[in-house]
């Protein structure tokens, strides 16, 4: 029976790790304005979660609270069954983050930047360097690896951020608009990487405004509207019919149906009061 302790410990670990991310009653206000209200989520490991919502819905605020970058006003956050502790190195090592439009150190080369990031995550310099270079070569950054980031295009910078988020082999990834600036081929590679990571048990919390990609990639979609979760589930369970797109669902759930009218009013103003001219022309033809 010598192995009973090991088995019990293992079983306990499995139970503790039942959820990669758990939010319980999260609330947050800024200057009296409530941005998140009673957000409750339980996310199993090995899931791609598409976290969507209109501008200002509270997506980044949620992610910053999970990452320990912001304090919530109420509620608890647990990562693999442990309450968030920003001083706990285990916690940091299990998480990778691609922030939207992050500033990179322009004066550094990709090699120098990624070595630095790797070391911050506790990797030995030589290991960080070797791993970063291999990853860079696969995504087509090999030739530019020793060039300063200042000379990089938007898509190349995005690839550097993606590599930086993965160097330490985290278990949970927070990716905010990860496909920003990538060309069509790079998009395909990154989408495949995402699915491969999920297939190997990683949990991906994916925020994007590109609805067809979220629909295609996500195992579970969470729609936040004005700080409240208004839809949560696999897309095929949320959609009213097989013909419904996530874009339609999004418009419906966020109460937005006037995109056509808004576009027309906008272009009318761009073109110098076309409506006024049309109204005048109509009035003239009526009086004839
Ligand atoms: N540090 C802050 N101080 C004051 N208000 C803030 C702060 N951070 C966010 N907010 C406000 O909280 C609300 C939610 O912002 P958040 O960035 O979480 O939205 P989001 O869903 O990520 O939007 P987007 O899709 O535009 O990135 C917005 O009204 C924003 O102005």
TrEMBL record:
- Organism this protein belongs to: Lacticaseibacillus sharpeae JCM 1186 = DSM 20505
Name assigned to this protein: Abc transporter, atp-binding protein
**Family (UniProt):** Belongs to the ABC transporter superfamily.
Segments traversing the membrane = none
- Looking at the record, the residues that make up the ABC transporter domain are 21-251
> Do you know which PROSITE patterns this protein is assigned to?
ABC_TRANSPORTER_1, ABC_TRANSPORTER_2
Per its UniProt record, what InterPro entries does this chain match?
AAA+_ATPase (IPR003593), ABC_transporter-like_ATP-bd (IPR003439), ABC_transporter-like_CS (IPR017871), ABC_transporter_ATP-binding (IPR050763), P-loop_NTPase (IPR027417)
| Annotated keywords | ATP-binding, Nucleotide-binding, Transport
Keyword set includes Chloroplast: no
Which Pfam families does the UniProt record give? ABC_tran (PF00005)
**Any one Gene Ontology molecular-function term assigned to this protein's record:** ATP hydrolysis activity
């Amino acid at each position: 029976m010598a192995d009973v302790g090991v088995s019990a410990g293992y079983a306990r670990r499995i139970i503790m790790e039942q959820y990669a991310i758990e939010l319980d009653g999260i609330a947050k206000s800024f200057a009296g304005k409530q941005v998140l209200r009673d957000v409750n989520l339980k996310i199993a490991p090995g899931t791609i979660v598409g976290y969507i919502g209109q501008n200002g819905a509270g997506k980044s605020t949620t992610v910053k609270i999970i990452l320990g970058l912001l304090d919530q006003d109420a509620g608890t956050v647990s990562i693999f069954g442990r309450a968030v502790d920003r001083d706990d190195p285990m916690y940091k090592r299990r998480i990778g983050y691609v922030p939207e439009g992050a500033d990179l150190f322009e004066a550094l080369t990709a090699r120098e930047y990624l070595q630095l990031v790797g070391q911050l995550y506790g990797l030995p310099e030589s290991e960080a360097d070797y791993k970063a270079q291999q990853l860079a070569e696969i995504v087509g950054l090999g030739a530019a690896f020793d060039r300063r980031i200042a000379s990089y295009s938007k898509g190349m910078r995005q690839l550097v951020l993606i590599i930086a988020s993965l160097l330490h082999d985290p278990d949970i990834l927070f990716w905010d608009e990860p496909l920003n600036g990538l060309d069509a081929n790079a998009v395909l590679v990154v989408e495949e990487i995402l699915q491969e990571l999920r297939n190997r048990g990683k949990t991906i919390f994916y925020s994007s405004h590109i609805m067809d990609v979220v629909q295609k990639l996500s195992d579970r979609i969470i729609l936040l509207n004005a700080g409240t979760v208004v839809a949560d589930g696999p897309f095929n369970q949320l959609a009213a019919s097989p013909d419904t797109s996530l874009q339609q669902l999004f418009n419906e759930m966020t109460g937005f149906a006037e995109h056509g009218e808004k576009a027309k009013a906008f272009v009318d103003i761009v073109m110098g009061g076309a409506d006024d001219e049309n109204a005048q022309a109509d009035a003239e033809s009526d009086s004839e």
